[in-house]
Every structure is written in structure tokens, then in C-alpha cells.
Write a structure and sequence with these properties.
globular; signal; alpha+beta; five-stranded antiparallel β-sheet; two-stranded antiparallel sheet; OB fold (Dihydrolipoamide Acetyltransferase, E2P)
Amino acid sequence: MKLSVGLLLLFIASPAYSCFVAPEHLAATADELINRTEEISLATVVRAEVSGDDIVYTFRTVQSVKGHPQSEFQVTGEALLYPMQAENFNNHTDQVFWDSKIGRITMHPDCKVHPSFSVGATYLAFLDQPYHTKSFEIINIVRGERQDKWLKYVLDRVGP
């Protein structure tokens, strides 16, 4: 009995154990993510400023993909700390990106995605919340060419 009560109190008191199962919006397929998002922008991070425990990233739109994103917009996130956060899955050609619901960023214990970015990098930004693990994928633009498979896929699904 004491053990049961102790475990119950542990789970109630600790926010780290608050999310056992990913919420439905994080289980969305790529097509569901594209369809449910009103504003998608190919954008470059131009500034990062500390705001309390968060980082406020300012983006400049390179190309409006869906909807009418502002020419500059901000996303609140966290610092870029882990190598996975800079992953682009070989320009999104790696099958693991397509076979699973993983992306560059992961779900935290609070069942939310807290994005992180690198100033100067370009991202395909799905701006509607709640964010998905694929909401902010790095897009490498080499010599003005956009060879990224994820970007091409989204552009194809959204259409002209």
C-alpha cells in the first residue's frame, strides 16, 4: 500500500513523468501535418535573443509556401544543444525520416515540441501550433538550388 501511494505521489508531483503517450497531433503523418497547417514558410533565422528561460528566434521569410506568413516572424524555443537538433537526414533522403514520425526536434516530457535553431540556417517552418517533430526541418540551399526532398515533397503537396 505504501509503495502504491509513494508511486502515485511521485507521478503526480513530477512534471517529468507527465507525458507517457505522445498526443495525437504528434502522431500526424506528413500529409496530415501539411493539411492541418495554415502557414508554412521557408525562412532563415536572422537573430536569437534570450528571454528568461527561452530563446526568441527571429526569422526572415525566403519563400511563402502556404498561407500568408509575415516577411519576418518570431518563434520562441530553446537553445540548440544536441547534435540531433542540427540533423537534416541527408537532405531528408534518409528513409528513417519517412518511415517514422521523427524529425529534427523531439517531444519533451510536457508533451510539447520546443524548437531550437541556428542563426543563419534556413528552415521549412510549419507555423501553426501545436508544433510537430517535423515542424522546423533544416533545409540546405546550395548555390541557390533547393535539393531537399522534404521541401520538394511539401511544395508538391501544397501546389502553386
